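Submission sheet (multi-component)
Chains listed below:
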Amino acid sequence: MPSATYRNLFSMGTRMDIVLPGIDDYFADQLLAVIKEQLTDIEDKISNYNDNSVFSELNREAASKPVIIDPEIFWMIEELAGLSEKTRCYFDFTIGKILELKRNKEAFHPDDDEQIKHLLENTGIKFLKTNRENLSVEFGSPFISLDSGAFGKGAALDIVKTVLNKKTVNTGFISFGESSILAIGSHPFGDSWKTAITDMFKPEVNVYVQDLKDQFLSVSGITPQNLKKYGTGHILNPKTAEPVKSFRQSAVAGEKGLVTEVLSTALLCAPEDERDAIMDNFPGYKVVIIEYDASYKSKIVYS
Amino acid sequence: MNESVNRRDFLKTFSLIAGSSVIIGSMPWLQGLNAQENSDKTVRIGMIGMGSRGMYLYLMLKDIPNMEIKCVCDDYEPHLANALEAVGPQAKGYVDYRQMLEKEQLDAVVIATPLHKHVGPTIDSMNAGLHVFCEKSMARTIEDCNEMVKAHQNTGKILYVGHQRMFNIKYHQAYKMIKEGKLGDITQIRAYWHRNNDWRRPVPSPDFERKINWRMYHEYSCGLMTELASHHIQVANQIYDQYPEYVWGSGSINHWKDGREVYDNVNLVYKYPNNSHLVYDSLISNKQYGLEVQVQGPKGTMELELGKMWEEFPPPAPGMLSLINHLEHKLFDAIPVGGASWVPDDAVSRKGNWIIDEVLDNDGTKMQMEAFVSDVRNNRVDSYITQQGFYSSVATLMGFNAMHRNEIVYWPEGLAM
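Outcome: structure written.
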């Protein structure tokens, strides 16, 4: 078996690293070209930074009329709405306006609290109307704005898996920003791919090890780096619009990238007493939640 | 902001990014910024040519400690009056620079006259024992450039040519990284300078058209080549550490058909001895792309005006590097993911990385004037700046000739300093 081939590409503002054992350079480049094309296509459809994307079109027009959209995105929106419901709405992709307001620190001032409250009351999947007959989407509230930030990488990895399966690649390890992982088959010298969630304050320490075989892993976390970069936790609880403030990581492993991505974010926000109820809706998915105490000591608080 | 504070900031930032004073030592034209000797000695300067560029240089000079602008000279009365009002009553005004050289006790002159009037005051000033700062390009003809260099060599006087990118921190860091091989061997430089205006100045009457709008006429200027391209050609020469072997190109007047003689668009390819190229274009009918110098090598790309770099093959993220090492050593071990090392946007991205983190609000002109005054004060003659100005000016004029003669123009045989 030739040694592993390494490639990378950029999508959704993040680097994707691809390691393919036993694949030669020529085939790796062919695979990369197909993956790039497919990821560009999905990014063009769901990006909030592209005025011509389906999401942007919906955000502009769907509050005033039903908008017939690309079938792939229609079914994705239906699936996301279902996931939102299953996570008890701790994943909510309709709160784009709240995210925009909270992230624009310079424009935000205390008077905006009333506005946030109003937005919270008028966003959520309950205002999302989909019509399977003509594949249209309509917003029942003008305050809805779809945001792809919390699930895009998972959707992208699902696409990568489909491409690699079609091309009969049976072993590979793909990392999207080191927080979203796709493991195809198993390590050439093991019976799975072994991943380690490291202590965010002591990177040399593995807090939890997760074996993956034809599975995805999504890690969400509030890390010191996030705090430095964003000034506060960068993940908002969609029910309160408050950032998750404590140092916490959640890691979810399972068979679908979109689900692991959604679930890891939702579990980071959900209160302790709702975690079991949420996980009951996701049989086959494994979760671990790690918290850090005042002396930055890690502890697995849920698995 | 006080100018000397700017110089301290420059040196501090430069020291941080360059790593050590050894680097400054390898860029000898910067020594003037470091010099502490004779700092209380007043440098007496006369300025020749007080149009817009001359006034800009005055603004860059005026706050330098222990520097006195004793006189200003311009043969266009409104410019002279404007300069005298700005500089103040202590400065004397002259219409003829020769009278100024004869009557004033000076250490140096700063020349910002129209291009065709660089050669006279530059050579006369050096022959009169004065150091010279001359705006780029050096002169209207290669022969005049050569005469200016000979005067510099014969008199031993400083001859700065106004290529301010030689004093821009961002450019220094880029040169350092390029020399370290961050981009690999440079295979191509693409540069462009685009504007969208007629490049004209208002004239009080048609009688002053050629005097005010001298850049439009071949007798006085080579247009976009001498006034803009010379900067980027200097940068290319410095990066390649060579002057070009030959150039070919094409230009025309395709938009501003208003009686001007100089082209409003130029397109050139310079070939360097190491089989690399500078591909250059400039136009004044579209400003979409502004100006840029793109330096390309097998390992990466830099855009020097923007100040960013892109790697062709960014190294794997830390966790993936660990995995690759494991695979190479046939080890089955855990791959770290999602840990403290994860800050996705800090990774090398398609958005590129800034060449320097700390950008001073400075295009290099202030630092260049600081260095000039310091060098004059210490009588420190460094010919590298002169050489860079000379080679850039010659290459600029070669490009002009190539377009107008519609032929490949080679570097003049034996021309070097």
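Remark: Chain B has 14 helices and 16 strands.
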